[in-house]
Amino acid sequence: MSGIYFHIPFCKQLCHYCAFHKSISLQAKARMLSCLKKELNDRKNYLTGNKIDSIYFGGGTPSVYSPEEIQSLILEVGRHFIINDNSEITLEANPDDLTHDYLKALKDTSVNRLSVGIQSFHDEDLILMNRRHSGQQAFDAIKRAQTYGFDNISVDQIYGVPGLSLKKWEENLKKVFELNIQHISSYHLMYDPNTVFTHKLKKGIIKEVDEEVSLAQYKHLISEAKKHGFLHYEISNFSQSGFESRHNSSYWQQKMYLGLGPSAHSYNLNRREWNISDNLKYMKAIEEGGAYSECEELSFNDKFNDYVLTSLRTMWGLDLELVKNEFGEFYHQYCLEKANKFIQSEDVRIEKKHIILTDKGVFISNDVMSDFFYIEE
Ligand SMILES: C[S@@+](CC[C@H](N)C(=O)[O-])C[C@H]1O[C@@H](n2cnc3c(N)ncnc32)[C@H](O)[C@@H]1O
Ligand code: SF4
Predict the structure, then answer these.
(1) In contact, 150 and 114? CB cutoff 8 Å
(2) How far away, in angstroms, is 328 Cα from ligand 1 center?
(3) Domains of the chain, residue spans
(4) Which of 26, 215, 8 is nearest to 93 (CA)?
(5) Is the beta carbon of 95 within 6 A of some atom in ligand 2?
(6) Fewer CB within 10 Å: C terminus or N terminus of the chain?
(7) Can you give the residue ranges of the Radical SAM core domain (predicted)?
(8) Which of 46, 171, 62 is nearest to 106 (CA)?
(9) Do the first three CATH levels of 2-251 and 300-372 match, i.e. the same topology?
(10) DSSP secondary structure letter of residue 120
(11) How many other C-beta atoms are found inside a 10 Å radius of the C-beta of residue 35?
């Protein structure tokens, strides 16, 4: 099974924390749509005949395209690949785009999962982030989507944001669980280079929140999610049983994926490729047959480290049998030695031949994962 990712590199307004590739000029929307279709055709052999079981429209803001335009891309995938009947087809959408008309038309497409950026329900946070909607508008958008029959909805929320106290975060979570949604992605704010937040941080206009506060927010998130019956299946992702994001899981489970559009990444188990993060250069290269991507061949050891990084992030953990079969006895023993060290500190456990982060270990996941990396001499 494989996945297809479309990067839609447009946003109507720039959020002050976000470094994802996008342009706020929407002029090239139609031209970009044709280029995405052309890239799909040019790279139809990349997945070596594998069936598709997930399509993900991410961005940027995919909901800048009409439902008809989104469906035209799905149909184009169907012209070149076999799409499984029960595929997961996700559209990332900004709450203010989810109007009655939009949702009604979207229900007639093959999109069956929505991922909506809520970030916070507090208007002062949304203003600080330069979002286009209020907390109430975001709440109403989810409710509206449910009335149109969308029953697989994920929301994004950010914690560790300046001005977001533990009390405000608790209120955000309370509202999220009132929505009766199936999936939550919750990220700690990252100060990415070239964002307004990072600029303000450097100038002393905003201040990073204390580590104890953001740790308390993360712990509260984990305990509330458990209380509401959600599985904590990846460091930042929670779902009702059976609603784990199949697309993101394919990244974590080392499946092949083809990424289309500027800045999109692709992986076919041997090679990583990434498209240039520049809309005009991307479109020109696609139209004229020029180069628009770079690639890296993965060494055997790179593949092992990739497996460590992706598997330890999840509740399924690192499969010791898989390591033995795919990477050999040396790496198998290496994993057992590393695991012993972290079993003593109660950061990992071994269950049914899988090394899994404990709740304690999840808080220091970056340290654990980097310690598991095998560095070749
Ligand atoms: C690719 S963005 C697109 C979602 C959609 N455009 C929206 O804003 O609603 C996916 C999510 O990444 C998260 N995100 C983006 N930049 C972040 C940052 N610097 N720190 C933490 N989370 C971030 C946000 O929660 C955002 O909703
Ligand atoms: S968070 Fe979403 S809407 Fe905001 S700039 Fe990033 S991609 Fe665009």
Answers:
(1) yes
(2) 38
(3) 2-251, 300-372
(4) 8
(5) no
(6) C
(7) 1-231
(8) 62
(9) no
(10) -
(11) 22
Fold classification of 300-372 (topology level) = Arc Repressor Mutant, subunit A (1.10.10)
Inter-residue contact 4 to 58 (CB < 8 Å): no
Q: Is the CB of 2 under 6 A from ligand 2?
A: no
How close is the Cα of 292 to the center of ligand 2, in Å?
23
Domain 2-251 has CATH 3.40.50.300: no
| Cβ pair 160, 214 in contact under 8 A | yes
User: What tokens were used for 342?
Assistant: 């972290």
3-state DSSP call for residue 341?
Answer: helix
Read off the amino acid at residue 277: S
Measured between alpha carbons, how far is 217 from 206 in angstroms, rounded to an integer? Answer: 19
- Mutation to probe ligand 1, out of 14, 15, 20, 130 (largest number of atoms < 8 A from CB): 20
Q: What single letter denotes the amino acid at residue 46?
A: Y
Q: Consecutive sets of 10 residues in the chain, 377 residues long: mean pLDDT of each?
A: 95 97 97 98 90 95 98 97 95 98 98 98 98 98 98 98 97 98 97 97 96 94 97 95 87 85 92 96 96 94 93 94 95 96 95 95 93 89
